[in-house]
Specification:
Elements: H1 24-46, E1 53-60, E2 63-71, H2 74-77, H3 84-96, E3 104-110, H4 114-122, E4 127-132, E5 157-159, H5 164-178
Parallel strand pairs: 3-4, 4-5
Antiparallel strand pairs: 1-2, 1-3
The structure holds zinc ion.
Amino acid sequence: MENKIDNAALSPSAMRQTPERGDSSVAEMDQAFMRAALALAASAAERGEIPVGALIVQEINGQRHIVGSGGNQRRIDSDPTAHAEIIALRQAGGALKRWQLTDCDLYVTLEPCPMCAGALVNARIRRVIFGCRDPKAGAVTTLFRITDDPRLNHRLEITPDVLAEQCADLLKTFFKSRR
Ligand SMILES: [Zn+2]
């Protein structure tokens, strides 16, 4: 499988901390993981894919570990479902040998689309942390609110706008270069 988990390349020191909820170090940790997701997005751009990157982080006894990661590879795979989140979810399920990811959080540079938001609910992901909002397809807060809809059987905690500007800039630069 191409998307090997490279923990060495994706381990800013903040990830090893064990912050309490609401602590400002949660924000620091979120930014550290988002920077790692940004790196995945940047390599997607190098492959000519729309730059979106995602990471799945499992918490065990207060320690956090990356168990899945992915960049958008829709074009290379000729697969309309090969969004970064889906790649990362499949990898995490394979690594943990289960489909329920209740102890995992997902970081992604762009607000998830309806397909990915639905997949996050199905995977029972605990929290979704995203970079910039997507006015064209965002299904966490912008166009739809799939991940905390009380009618569904699972709801996620939502943390929007983490390094939003960097995440949006990467997309803008990519689309500008293709014009
Ligand atoms: Zn998606």
